[in-house]
Amino acid sequence: MDEANPEFLNKGDNAWQLTAATLVGLQTIPGLVILYGSMVKRKWAINSAFMAFYAFAAVLVCWVGWGYQMSFGDKLVFFLGKPAVALDEKYLLKQAFSGSFPNATMVFFQAVFAAITLVLIAGALLGRMNFHAWILFVPLWFTFSYTIAAFSIWCPQGWLSKLGVIDFAGGFVIHLSSGVAGFTAAFWVGPRAEKERVNCPPNNIILMLVGAGLLWMGWSGFNGGAPFAANTLSALAVLNTHVCTAISLLTWLLLDSFFFGKPSILGAIQGMITGLVCITPGAGLVQCWAAIIMGIISGSVPWFTMMVLHKKIKILKLVDDPMAIFHTHAIAGGLGGILTGFFAVPKLCRIFSGVSDKYIGLAYGLQNGRTSAGFKQTGIQLGAMLFVIILNIVMTSIICWFIGLMVPLRLSNEELDVGDDAVHGEQAFSLCHDREKFVTSRHNKVYDTDELSYVGSKSISSIQMV
Q1: What domain count does the chain have?
Q2: Which CATH number do you get for residue 181?
Q3: Confidence of residue 1 (pLDDT cuts 50, 70, 90)
Q4: Shortest CA distance to 34 belongs to which of 206, 222, 210, 221?
Q5: Three-state DSSP state, 67
Q6: pLDDT value at 185 more than 70
Q7: What does the radius of gyration of the chain's CA atoms come to, in whole angstroms?
């Protein structure tokens, strides 16, 4: 037998799964790195991008060290697997728990999902969290929160998985978790200074769109890889993802235009994200017309919570969430889970799970005379939501309290006032720093960046302060 091509290996499935994993990785590196670094004020560009960059690396190390087995390995208790490394060559070349490819492929695919979850949490903490506290937060939250939700919902041995919850690609495990955890952590870290919250324009809107575009296109791998095969469901999932997202974006733009008079690029990005998040729990399990309805809902309900309720509810005004992670991920992820419980097609669920008559959306239960089964599915979806919410509020609060015993959760007032230069000793846009001169490499001329006026020539390319 060819050890490099065992009988279980389907080369097409394996190639697609590695491609999908890479697309998800690109959503973070460089997608969210660029998005975060360009959406914040200039003085926080490096810190914001670096929080995402660090989290991606740290989670991957923790994942192969113990996290994968805690999420998908042998059961320790009903909600968690046994900690163990996933680095053994013999183990990595064996067939994964699902799919026609090796464990090595599955480990990498699931790793990038875990990593993006922590990076999404970072979006609620930008511009004031102590980076040393963030260094500790990432492995602790990953170990004591993410692995529990992943095992419970996604692992075949998990209690919610056995109960019959539907979470196609992470509406609960990733988006609801990150939204609730980010909001909770933001509460403990505290808000930015009032002047920072009132006046916080993006430092580069065009580059922000580049990051958003990588996030959108990368979602083909996010949802398309969920069936663990290059099959009809993966194709349906990709199509539904982009249709729902486009509808959600347009809905948000229409609401902005109608109520505020102008379409907003920031609003378009938020509408894009809510559409991507909302379709995720059921991307390959609903019909395309249902994806359109989900897009309308995901572009309007989070818009209402963000633009209207946020200004009226005290706890929402109190907690500083710079990237609106609560609205775009917690609200949209919860909506997606509920709507999936309503629109999930029994036939598609059977193809996905290989189990007959276990999963059915309430709409089809009412249509097919299986009303009790449909309401049961809705109850399971709501129960899973409640579990994820309680888990993340409790564990995130404990982790923040524990970290606070060792290092401050929040940067000092001096660091908050200065930004990147004080925290990292670096500046994202040094050529645009006040009273700085730079030389163009083409003409070797020195320019004062304040006035863009020619002030002399140099024989070497250099940057000088005046």
Answers
A1: 2
A2: 1.10.3430.10
A3: low
A4: 210
A5: helix
A6: yes
A7: 23
